[in-house]
Amino acid sequence: MNKHSNLRKLLCMSAGAIIIAFAGMGFNFKSVNKTIELTTIEVPVAGNTWKTNNEELGGTITDDGIVNWTDQHAEFKTYIRSAKPGRLEVWIKLSVPQGKSQIEVAGPGRSVKINVEGNSVKAYSTGTWLITDTGYLNFKIKGLSRTGSKFADVSSFQIRGTNVDDITFVKNNEGNFYHWGRRGPSVHLNYILPEDLQAEWFYNEVKVPVRNDVIGSYFMANGFGEGYFGMQVNSATERRILFSVWSPFTTDDPDKIPETQKIRLLAKGKDVHVGEFGNEGSGGQSYLKYNWKAGVNYKFLLHGRPEGENHSIYTAYFYDPEKESWMLIASFSRPDTRTYLKRLHSFLENFVPDQGHVERQVEFTNQWVRSSAGKWIELHKARFTGDNTARKKYRMDYGGGIHQNSFYLRNCGFFNDYTELGQVFERPLSGQAPEVKFDDLPN
Predict the structure, then answer these.
(1) Relative to the CA of 163, which of 3, 175, 238, 274 has its CA 20 to 30 Å away?
(2) What is the residue extent of each domain of the chain?
(3) How far is CA 387 from CA 99, 104, 355, 411, 423, in A?
(4) What is the model's pTM?
(5) Is the pLDDT of residue 32 over 50?
(6) What's the start-to-end Cα distance of the chain, in Å?
(7) What is the pLDDT of residues 337-377, one digit of tens each?
(8) Can you say whether the dihedral through the CA atoms of 418, 423, 424, 426 is positive or negative?
């Protein structure tokens, strides 16, 4: 019997008979009335929020969320990324230490005013939000009025909807991820070298595009297996050329490094500061306060070779385009090491969490290595990788690729066109080896 005969029979049946007939076909009428259970997620303010207008205004972001919020002009934005459009029900969880407050929550397409009170944490509904596109979105909160000393202590947003499984954000503070998430994802270029190459010199050129010299940025040019060398924006008034070498002794506290495992300074340039560093491994550090400028191309040169039976020596040079000469930054000896330069790379990172919502970019051009036999070899391929924040997809505002004849990296700022990790980029060959007069380098 064909489907048209079945349909004619059903049309001639009573309503009850139709139900019985459909049930016989395996149709479950209970499923029609069953409410779809929506998943609810909690987005902690601590790892996903920034004060976006003025850091000096009253209100601080801590591991507990927004606290000491006293200033009516302070604005905070909490960012999430949605891989699918949809509708989201959103609540904001907070407490009001004293009195009553009115706050405003602004999100995609609209804003809502909420009256809040009570010193115990409550979830206040902000209604349903229509998400029409994929990518990053934010919820901005600001205070409108208060009768107490503070507007509120805000701990999290609760979000419910059919697409919450496709929303990414910093989920918790395991591994101190509120800190790392607010710093933003770091991205790297791992240069591909010929096998069995004894690389004694590594040359790279770096340019930060205008308006990308954001406070907290480290534009690292010449990274190697035992250290890194590049330039930083340390404050509104200070910039540095930084060169560091890790100790072979694993610790985040430089005071715990045994004397036999310490990095030893061999030489340093004029006005270069030398000391030790910690927190991300430990070792010897040197830096020159130097007012480098966005939009200008800078040259970095690194020397690395084994010395004796149990040491390697690493020496960093920076080319000052204003003086048209190479400057010695520092030369360090590393114990328990016998190697030429290896694992050559560049990276871009933000080291100031309060600046993790601001995008920055950098270009790396004309990479070369010089072998121990004195031969220059151009490096024109690099693998794009990211740190744990990127790999976990807690933050997905990272990118890289080729711009004209340069590699580039970008991060932070919550842009949507992220670059998949693991890709290999290949820039055009220049064929022009660096002109370095090695006998004239300072020592």
Answers:
(1) 175
(2) 39-169, 182-440
(3) 44, 35, 18, 12, 15
(4) 0.89
(5) no
(6) 96
(7) 999 999 999 999 999 999 999 999 999 999 999 999 999 99
(8) negative
Rounded-to-10 torsion of CA 173, 175, 176, 182: -80
Which tokens go with 335?
């114990």
Mean pLDDT of 110-114: 98
Fold of 39-169: Jelly Rolls (2.60.120)
Q: Six-digit token pair at 404?
A: 């004209």
